[in-house]
Automatic annotation (TrEMBL):
Residues 58-87 are annotated as: Disordered. The chain crosses the membrane at residues 12-30, 36-56. This is Glycine zipper family protein. Keywords: Membrane, Transmembrane, Transmembrane helix. It comes from the Bacteria.
Amino acid sequence: MTDRPRRRFDATWLPFGMMLGFTVGIGVGLTAFDNLLLGALVGFAVGTALGIALGFRGGRGSSVRDEDAEDDEYRRRHGDPGPGGPR
């Protein structure tokens, strides 16, 4: 398996948190504040914070390492370039 630097932040969760927060914020904003814009802004902020928190969480388990090993084995057998492209 090739050595890959560990990323401190995984931005995969950020858009999901923003979308979920925005959607839930609209509903809560209409119910609690009776203001669609205020609810959407609060929900967007909470969703962004949720996405950032999920992005910074650790705990990359062995399943990720196993998947990386399978990817490396496939590339070795089939001659596919790695994530950095052809050398």
